[in-house]
């Protein structure tokens, strides 16, 4: 016998909402500084594409943030870049640090993600 329970809360189906995120593909976000309007399109954290792994770095000389490939792999091999092999694309310097996510490299204010734009890459 099925009983109706008038006071029952509506059932949540499967708990958390399902997202159709493709895990093998990295995602980039547009970070915008809330203070100086600096913008950067980066993943913001270690991210894995189909054949590469990237992380977001800050050049302490250029005061820019950007993603750099830290690992390349295939089905049989993988190559991890050493710290010496990672350099700033602009000044070619190695005065890099992993980005403190959400911190503007220019003015150290908070950066927020512009949710209206996302970028997929592979
Ligand atoms: Zn800023
Ligand atoms: Zn630089």
- Content-based structural category: mainly beta
Distance between the termini: 53 Å
Which geometry do the CA atoms define? Answer: flat
* Beta-strand segment tally: 8
Structural domain tally: 1
- Major sheet summary line: 5 strands, antiparallel
Based on CA atoms alone, the radius of gyration comes out at 20 Å
Unreliable runs:
15-24
Bound molecules: zinc ion
Order of helices and strands: EEEEEEEE
Number of helices: 0
Q: What is the percentage of strand-forming residues?
A: 35-45%
Estimate the helix proportion, in percent.
under 10%
Overall mean pLDDT stands at: 83
Description:
Helices cover 0% and strands 39% of the residues. The protein is built from no helices and eight strands. It has strands at residues 27-33, 39-42, 47-48, 52-59, 64-73, 78-80, 96-98, 111-120. It has one domain. By secondary structure, it is an all-beta fold. The protein starts with 26 loop residues before the first strand and ends with a strand. The strands form two sheets. Strands 3, 4, 5, 6 and 7 form a five-stranded antiparallel beta sheet that branches. Strands 2-1-8 form a three-stranded antiparallel beta sheet, with no helix packed on it. Strand 4 (52-59) and strand 5 (64-73) form a beta hairpin. One zinc ion binds next to loops. The site of one zinc ion has 8 residues, from loops.
Q: Notable features of this structure?
A:
mainly beta, 39% strand, 0% helix, 122 residues, binds zinc ion, 3-stranded antiparallel sheet, 8 strands, single chain
